[in-house]
Specification:
Layout lengths: L14 E8 L5 E13 L6 E7 L5 E6 L6 E4 L3 E6 L4 E7 L2 H23 L22 H10 L2 H13 L3 H15 L2 H16 L3 H7 L5 H7 L12 H8 L11 H20 L6 H23 L2 H12 L5 H17 L5 H13 L2 H9 L4 H17 L1 H8 L5 H12 L7 H12 L7 H14 L1 H12 L18 H17 L1 H10 L2 H5 L8 H15 L4 H9 L4 H10 L5 H15 L3 H15 L6 H46 L2 H15 L47 H13 L5 H18 L5 H6 L5 H18 L4 H19 L10 H7 L1
Antiparallel strand pairs: 1-2, 1-7, 2-3, 3-4, 5-6, 6-7
Helix pairs in contact: 2-5, 4-5, 9-10, 12-15, 14-15, 14-17, 15-16, 15-18, 17-18, 18-21, 21-22, 21-24, 24-27, 27-29, 28-29, 29-36, 30-35, 31-32, 31-35, 32-35, 34-35
GO cellular component, one term: protein phosphatase 4 complex
Organism: Brassica carinata (Ethiopian mustard)
GO molecular function: protein phosphatase activator activity
């Protein structure tokens, strides 16, 4: 190839790159640095990728752009490919990302143009562009047919598919040539036929596959594929399919189309998985799977529509005269039939399962689960799992019936038996699905199933745990009978199921568990040597306490349920393992849940044992939470009492003050003077301090007794002389008191009473209550103070209108305040507070 022309390069057509070549050692060799361009080379009509050395303008690379998908773009600056002519790996490393993107777009554009030109038979003709018909299939034409099949492009493959389907005798003639080559032991001819058949299959035509997979030709096609040139010895697929593969009919199938589809499906699967497993690509495998899926749908549809066939199937399954071998084949067929129903549409699947339920399939499964053959029992469980996957309510509706109750018991029994390979988990999942409360429908059925399960089967499951943890759980008992040792995996499944029941319906399960002492029995697992069983028991208690129910907590405290857990925690010591984390998580749950009963129970009972673990943050926080609960217990009671008294005071104040402000001002003035003189000698005014036993107040009496001075040793009485307060200030106080009724009444009244005390002291007057609390004055001073109070009342009544009313009200307030309680007690009675206002 000649050197390329050197056109005038510019920044768009020339890009700076490094040329790399992959050597035999798998390392990249640097061939030089230059500028790349896409252009026509000399004496050629092909567009090529050219790289010119930047120093001496020598040609570093000339690569004709190929229409095949051989180019790869890596890391935004590298374009690599495998040169089909030289069978070498080449790569261009660009200095700039923009240059790499530009050249990559140019390559993709050229590939599209070249592909369109090849379809239109323009200057780039393909190998078989003039293919009009296939050559006659003969031994001498096998090389030409092989070349056409294996070397045709995409457009030629479509044309080749049309010609093969158009020639109805092509495969028949090819099979005849195969027989001749096989008889003559013509190995070369057999190898060519193998490649021809393989190439035709790789065309991935559904019509061709349907034709070659027919009953008439499938065995011969498989025979052609026995002679793989890549395998030194011929395979014997036909011999295996004829002699070792046996087709069993549990019930005779009379429809020939069903039989044909069954055989075809098996052979296609054998061809896909065995014969051509290493040569088929994903597209061919997907096409073959679609053929198998379609065949399965046809088989199931034809069989389910045959009512005679279904009735005969269930009649044989229920018949006591059916032999065990025949019943085994019937069960296998029923399982396969239900499994193949996945090929149907959803609506057809639901209709099929309902028909099977009406035919009594669940009753048949009950009988299957009671067969001693464990393999058949697992097959029955698989059938139930298929029903639950499709529509769980079908099985729920059967279980809640009277005749369906034994099925749930059989599932529980199957979960407790040892089937090997952890097959008890399958029974566990079936039971969990029946009890699952997160399903979209069937709530009433689930509730009934939960009731049945809790009543009849929970004791049975718990007894298994108890028996496995007793001292005679293994070996020979006293009676000489050998006990069956329960596998630890089964015990773990039982714990998981119990936890699941609590999470699904805590109200029902907690009552059942408390009545049957389930928690104490499950905690017997702490005696087991398997640590994961001990963790499962702790996790069960953790789940039970998550209910946050007082009955559960009281039960735990009363029966000392947590003792085995604490003992295990102490025995575990400072080992940081799953058991340690599970128990600490349980304590954290109790602490964060503010379970005061459990907090006190654990600390009061087990703190001597837990004290050695105070270095752990969880134990420290647990003790702090316990101390906080103790501190908040007493203040809480006091706060409740004070709050109750305040509420009583407020209710009394509301009614008394409403009546007070509804009275006429003039009537208040006159009544104030008369009532003051009448009530002054009464003993109860002094808050019951100097009252005689015979005298009693019409109210309930004061809430605080001040007779004993030792009760309030730190109390300091107010000074006798206080700054004088004017009448205007007293009026402002009364107005403020009227405006603040919507606020805290108790606080406002206390402030008003204190101001009234200061006012009366400045005028040299002291009430009986003040004399009792502060100091005991002689009778002479009392009379003089009363006279002063009377003169003050007369002066205040000389005003007119609003002023007279305001002064009278203020004066009355001062009078009442002086006579009632000048120093407000923290526990004053409601009536005292009202009079003080």
């Amino acid at each position: 190839m000649g050197a390329p022309d050197k056109p005038q390069s510019n920044s768009n057509s020339m890009q700076r790159v490094k040329v790399y070549h992959l050597n035999e050692d798998g390392k990249w060799d640097d061939r030089g640095t230059g500028h790349v361009s896409i252009d026509y080379v000399e004496r050629s009509e092909e567009l090529s990728l050219c790289v010119i050395d930047e120093e001496d303008n020598e040609t570093l690379l000339v690569h004709p752009i190929n229409t095949e998908d051989i180019y790869r773009k890596q890391e935004d600056t590298i374009i690599s490919w495998r040169d089909p002519e030289r069978s070498t790996e080449l790569a261009l490393s660009f200095q700039e990302t923009a240059g790499c993107s530009y050249v990559w777009d140019q390559i993709c554009t050229m590939q599209r143009n070249l592909y369109v030109s090849s379809l239109n038979s323009e200057p780039f003709p393909s190998l078989n562009s003039e293919l009009r018909e296939l050559p006659a299939v003969e031994l001498t034409t096998l090389p030409l047919i092989l070349k056409i099949v294996t070397e045709s492009g995409m457009s030629d493959q479509m044309r080749l598919t049309e010609l093969i389907l158009k020639d109805h005798d092509f495969f028949r003639n090819l099979m005849d040539v195969f027989k001749i080559c096989e008889d003559l032991e013509n190995v070369d001819g057999l190898h060519m036929i193998f490649n021809i058949v393989k190439g035709i299959i790789l065309l991935n035509s559904s019509q061709i596959l349907e034709k070659i997979f027919g009953d008439e030709m499938i065995m011969e096609i498989i025979g052609c594929l026995e002679y793989d040139p890549g395998v030194p010895h011929s395979q014997h697929h036909r011999n295996f399919l004829k002699e070792h593969v046996v087709f069993k009919e549990a019930i005779p199938i009379k429809n020939p189309l069903v039989l044909s589809k069954i055989h075809q499906t098996y052979r296609i699967g054998y061809l896909k998985d065995v014969v051509l497993a290493r040569v088929l690509d994903d597209a061919i495998v997907a096409n073959l799977n679609s053929v198998i899926h379609a065949n399965n749908a046809i088989v199931v549809s034809l069989l389910k529509d045959d009512s005679t066939f279904i009735q005969e199937l269930f009649a044989r399954l229920r018949s006591p005269s059916t032999s065990m071998e025949s019943k085994k084949n019937l069960v296998y067929f029923l399982h396969e039939f239900c499994s193949l129903s996945k090929s149907l549409q959803v609506v057809q699947q639901l209709r099929l399962f309902r028909d099977l339920m009406n035919e009594g399939i669940f009753h048949v499964i009950e009988e299957i689960l009671q067969i001693p053959d464990k393999k058949l029992v697992l097959i029955g469980a698989d059938i139930l799992a298929l029903f639950l996957t499709q529509d769980p309510n079908l099985l729920r509706s059967y279980v809640v019936r009277t005749e369906g109750t034994p099925l749930l018991g059989l599932l529980v029994k199957g979960m407790m038996e040892d089937f090997g390979d952890k097959m008890h988990c399958q029974f566990l999942e079936i039971i969990r699905t029946l009890l699952d409360a997160n399903a979209l429908s069937g709530g009433a059925q689930r509730a009934n199933i939960m009731d049945i399960f809790l009543e009849k089967h929970i004791p049975e499951l718990v007894d298994v745990i108890t028996a496995s943890c007793s001292e005679k759980s293994s070996g020979i008992s006293e009676g000489g009978a050998i006990r069956v040792r329960t596998k630890p995996e089964v015990l773990l499944s039982i714990c998981e199921l119990l936890c699941f029941c609590i999470m699904q319906d805590s109200s029902r399960t907690k009552c059942s568990f408390l009545q049957n002492n389930v928690a104490e029995k499950v905690l017997q697992l702490t005696r087991r040597k398997e640590k994961y069983l001990v963790v499962a028991a702790v996790r069960f208690v953790r789940t039970l306490l998550s209910v946050h129910d007082d009955h559960v907590q009281n039960y735990v405290v009363k029966n000392n349920v947590l003792k085995p857990i604490i003992d295990v925690f102490i025995a575990n010591g400072n080992r940081y393992n799953l058991l340690n984390s599970a128990i600490l998580d349980l304590l954290e749950h109790i602490r964060k849940g503010n379970a005061t009963i459990l907090l006190k129970y654990i600390v009061d009972t087990f703190w001597d044992q837990l004290a050695q673990f105070q270095c752990l943050a969880s134990i420290q926080a647990f003790k702090i939470k316990y101390e906080q609960c103790l501190e908040s217990a007493v203040p809480q009671n006091t706060a409740d009492a004070v709050d109750l008294r305040i509420r009583v005071d407020e209710r009394a104040l509301d009614k008394e003050e409403e009546d007070y402000f509804n009275e006429d001002s003039d009537e208040e003035d006159s009544a104030s003077a008369s009532n003051t003189k009448k009530e002054e000698p009464k003993p109860h005014i002094s808050n019951g301090v100097a009252a005689s036993p015979a005298s009693s107040s019409p109210r309930s009496g004061g809430l605080v007794d001040y007779e004993d001075d030792e009760d309030d040793e730190d109390y300091k009485p107010p000074p006798k002389k206080q700054p004088e307060v004017s009448e205007e200030e007293e009026g402002e106080l009364l107005g403020l008191k009227r405006k603040s009724l919507s606020e805290n009444v108790f606080a406002v009244l206390c402030s008003t009473l204190s101001q009234a005390v200061l006012a009366k002291k400045s005028q040299g007057t002291t009430g009986s209550a003040a004399r009792t609390i502060v100091t005991k004055e002689p009778e002479d001073s009392r009379s003089s103070e009363e006279n002063n109070s009377s003169s003050s009342d007369d002066e205040n009544h000389k005003g007119d209108g609003v002023a007279s009313s305001e002064h009278g009200t203020s004066d009355k307030g001062k009078k009442l305040n002086g006579e009632e309680s000048l120093v407000v007690a923290p526990k004053s009675s409601p009536e005292m507070a009202v009079n003080g206002s």
